[in-house]
TrEMBL record:
Pfam families: ArgoL1 (PF08699), ArgoL2 (PF16488), ArgoMid (PF16487), ArgoN (PF16486), PAZ (PF02170), Piwi (PF02171)
Occurrences of domain Piwi (ranges): 513-814
GO MF assignments: RNA binding
Name this protein carries in UniProt: Argonaute-like protein
InterPro entries: ArgoL1, ArgoL2, Argonaute_Mid_dom, Argonaute_N, PAZ_dom, PAZ_dom_sf, Piwi, Piwi_ago-like
SUPFAM superfamilies hit by this protein: PAZ domain (SSF101690), Ribonuclease H-like (SSF53098)
Domain PAZ: 236-338
């Protein structure tokens, strides 16, 4: 049975006619959520201000607040309050701060050792900004109050309460803490630590604590020299870190990017060690670096540490670290203290190690979550007790779920099965012909792997396997005699032009496709190839790793054909109209759009064709770290215009029939705190785009969330799939859903190795008055039309495509240019940031017009 509608979501229209969703089964599942009580007493909210200091690290802030509560003013802070490490401090009773409810405290940390110079004094001001009546949460979960600032602040306060105790004991980030009980050395100076995520969330008629396992990448503690040697994967003498003994400048800069921001303990005159933060590395060794003394004259860094500090260097040729003040400290005198989280991107070569560590089968993950509840020990937390919270049951919630029927998929006549029904989110291409296969009469193969490693026979075998697989799925792909081996250090554009010219000379026409074989680590070649194909020449390109091509099986080339077919305008499979009744109404032409924002560029994927298997894309540049899509109106206008022209020119619809009556807009990359802002600005942009085209289109606006920690576990393992996960199509729209707004969780894909993550769908606006069942069924069906795969995916295909378009934004820039795409490129001041934004906008190259109506991004 469909769930009863929830009240309170004023923006969601309920349907006049109800569309039943086909349900295969109902099952009991466990969710990693635990019921908690709501405090009864008023909570006091204070703003924490450190007027004389810039933003301090959360770790240092926590130490200062701890010192303030335990040593500086324990009489004021009894019982102690809870702190988020930034600006928010909450107490269970009002503090005595004077008539203005504000007070400044001189706070300092204990001296490192007896007799040492006194530590720095920090002036911390607390100011009462609000009182929180937890009753608002009770009204909210009962559906009697909308989500406003009072509700959000109350939820924040409870989350800070449960995180306070572990944050005082363990290294932490915003919502997780980490212990060394389970850790793994992955080399390159890094370790992986297992930890726990925890967050308070509202449910329907209940408050919940969401607990999940989490992973942090940590710098290895010990000598900094050892860490640097480990980074390079080298043992032996530290002299390899000396420029005078062969340390290449490129490697020095790579090491600098890795260790900048690490906190190290360094010696000072008198013998004590103090913490410093590494800014960068010197370009020469300590014995060759000299500086001007205050008393006059010069001295090398090595001489200073020998004469003034009392440390004779064993390796004076090794480089130094430079700290924020500009002081230089020899590498060998620095110690890396434990418990430091690396907040940079994990090196690509370590991705597999991270996946191996983090991948947990469902039962193993659930067992770790239960163990985490014991580590968290809410019952023993003085903070949880003082605020009147309680977690009465140590068992995860058991709730009811439904399993939706998968859509039927149609293939081309000539297939052994014209229509197939996926089993647990999977099917195969055996004896199936693509719904609309393409022809590839002219193509070239360009090999960037060394010919000694990938020789002529390897190329011939690859071409044979590729063409045979293409014919099996219906693609008419002629054999090619154009095979070129090229040097990846050369000019990629010149080399690919040469391949194109060879095709023209041989076949009297340009190539339909250029297949490129890449060596390991060929990321820069890949970017240059895609820039050439997508932007410069407008020719389809398909990159393959050489390691995948050796003795590749037919299944591999069949999967490659799925990508190539849609790049050239073909269609792989389409859902049976009976499976997508929401979109099958010819009187209501419907566009499905997907949109996402990542850094540095936003992407929008849409619109779809009526069978929802073919999409076009728009991509643009905007301000970094901004969730709102700045130029959505223009992007939507272009997408709608392409849809209308396609319907008129290709499908031969009349001008009136070509106009869409409905838009279903799936939006990714939005945090819950920004729902209101995104809806207000982006819905307006969509409406303006429609107005500009003179069309009146009804819009449904859905946010698809992936960055959450809700997980499903089958209560009975026999009801799970082969991986131990809940079956594909598992949907939950009760108990853990939003109290006042229409939402649901849908696990649309079958499990493989780890624990599957359901997507969270929040329907923010619905002028089409779709039923919850209809939206669930549609969303599940769209997860089956992702062209690259014969498995359903975790989010609807248009959202997935938008994410891919975003991730490919770098391909729109000249690979010979000097724009900085690194993580550190966004960590600049506002003036630099504006200049960088303008540079990115100026250098952004639009898609080649020949690719405009093609799925070049597949």
């Amino acid at each position: 049975m469909p769930p009863p509608p929830r009240t309170g979501g004023a923006q969601v229209g309920l349907p006049a006619s109800h569309v039943e969703t086909l349900v295969v089964a109902e099952l009991k599942i466990c969710v990693n959520a635990f019921k908690t009580t709501i405090p009864r007493d008023i909570i006091h909210h204070y703003d924490v201000i450190a007027p004389a200091d810039k933003a301090l690290p959360a770790r240092l802030n926590m130490e200062l607040i701890r010192a303030l509560q335990e040593r500086i003013a324990p009489d004021v802070f009894t019982p102690p309050g809870v702190y988020d490490g930034r600006k928010n401090f909450f107490t269970a009773r009002k503090l005595s701060l004077g008539p203005d409810n504000t007070r400044e405290f001189d706070t300092k940390l204990p001296a490192p050792k007896p007799g040492a110079k006194g530590p720095k004094v920090y002036k911390i001001r607390l100011n009462l900004v609000a009182t929180i009546n937890p009753e608002v949460l009770q009204r909210f979960i009962e559906g009697k109050q909308s989500r406003d600032n009072a509700v959000l602040t109350a939820i924040t306060a409870l989350s800070v309460v449960i995180r306070m105790q572990p944050s005082m004991k363990y290294p932490f980030n915003v919502r997780s803490f980490f212990t060394d009980q389970e850790r793994k050395d992955i080399g390159s100076g890094l370790e992986l630590w297992c930890g726990y995520f925890q967050s308070v969330r509202p449910g329907i008629n209940q408050m919940l604590i969401n607990i999940d396992i989490s992973t942090a990448t940590m710098y290895k503690a010990g000598s900094l020299i050892s860490l640097c040697l480990d980074f390079f994967g080298r043992g032996g003498s530290p002299d390899i870190l000396a420029p005078s003994r062969g340390l290449p400048e490129r490697e020095r800069m790579r090491l600098q990017r890795f260790i900048s921001g690490i906190r190290v303990m360094t010696p000072t005159p008198g013998g004590k060690k103090i913490a410093r933060v590494i800014k960068k590395l010197s370009s020469t060794g300590a014995g060759a670096l000299s500086f001007q003394m205050k008393e006059g004259g010069t001295m090398t860094v090595a001489q200073y540490f020998k004469n003034v500090v009392g440390n004779v260097l064993k390796h004076p040729d090794v480089i130094c670290v430079e700290i924020g003040t500009g002081a230089l400290i020899p590498l060998e005198l620095c110690e890396v203290p434990p418990c430091q989280i690396m907040r940079k991107q994990v090196p690509p070569e370590k991705t597999k190690s991270v996946l191996d560590f983090t991948t947990k089968r469902p039962q193993a993950r659930l067992d770790l979550i239960k163990a985490g509840l014991r580590v968290l020990s809410y019952g023993q937390s003085e903070y949880v007790r003082e605020f009147g919270m309680n977690v009465p049951n140590n068992a995860p919630m058991s709730i009811s779920a439904r399993v939706l029927a998968p859509p039927a998929l149609k293939y081309c006549p000539g297939s052994r099965q014209l229509t197939i029904t996926p089993a647990n989110g999977a099917w195969n291409m055996r004896e199936k012909r693509l719904f609309k296969p393409v022809e590839i009469p002219r193509w070239a193969l360009v090999v960037y792997e060394r010919q000694q490693r990938f020789n002529s026979q390897n190329a011939a075998d690859m071409i044979k396997g590729h063409c045979e697989s293409a014919r099996e799925v219906g693609i008419n792909m002629g054999p090619t005699s154009i095979i070129l081996w090229q040097n990846g250090q050369g000019d990629i554009e010149v080399q690919l032009r040469a391949a194109g010219k060879a095709v023209v000379d041989k076949y009297k026409g340009g190539p339909n496709l250029i297949v490129v074989v890449l060596p390991e680590g060929g990321n820069e070649i890949y970017t240059a190839v895609k820039h050439f194909g997508d932007v410069t020449m407008g020719v389809a390109t398909q990159c393959l790793k050489s390691s995948k091509c050796f003795r590749a099986k037919a299944q591999y080339f069949a999967n490659v054909c799925l990508k190539i077919n849609v790049k050239l305008g073909g269609i792989n499979a389409v859902p049976d109209p009976k499976s997508v009744q929401t979109l099958a109404d010819p009187n209501n032409p419907t566009i499905v759009m997907g949109a996402d924002v990542i850094h540095p560029a936003p992407g929008s994927d849409g619109p779809s064709t009526p069978n929802n298997a073919k999409y076009v894309a728009e991509c643009a540049v905007q301000t970094s770290r901004q969730e709102i899509i700045e130029n959505l109106e223009t992007m939507a206008f272009n997408a709608l215009n392409m849809y209308i022209n396609y319907r008129k020119n290709v499908e031969k619809k009349s001008p009136q029939s070509a106009v869409p009556k409905r838009i279903i807009f799936y939006r990714d990359g939005v945090s819950e705190g920004q729902f209101k802002q995104v809806l207000e600005q982006e819905l307006t942009a969509l409406k303006k785009a429609c107005t500009s085209l003179g069309i009146n289109t009804q819009i449904t606006f859905i946010v698809v969330g992936k960055r959450h920690h809700i997980r499903f576990f089958p209560a009975n393992e026999r009801e799970g799939d082969q991986s131990g996960n809940c079956p594909a199509g598992t949907v939950v729209d009760r108990e853990i859903g939003h109290p006042t707004e229409l939402d649901f969780y849908l696990q649309s894909h079958g499990g493989l190795l780890g624990t599957s993550r359901p997507a969270h769908y929040s329907i923010l606006h619905d002028e089409n008055k779709f039923s919850p069942d209809a939206l669930q069924s549609l969303s599940f069906a769209l997860c089956h039309v992702y062209a690259r795969s014969t498995r359903s995916v975790s989010i609807p295909a248009p959202v997935y495509y938008a994410d891919i378009v975003c991730s490919r934004a770098k391909n729109h820039y000249d690979p010979k240019g000097n724009l900085d795409f690194s993580d550190s490129a966004t960590n600049v001041d506002s003036n630099q940031g504006q200049a960088s934004l303008e540079a990115f906008r100026k250098n952004f190259k639009p898609l080649n017009p020949t690719q405009k109506f093609l799925m070049y991004f597949s």
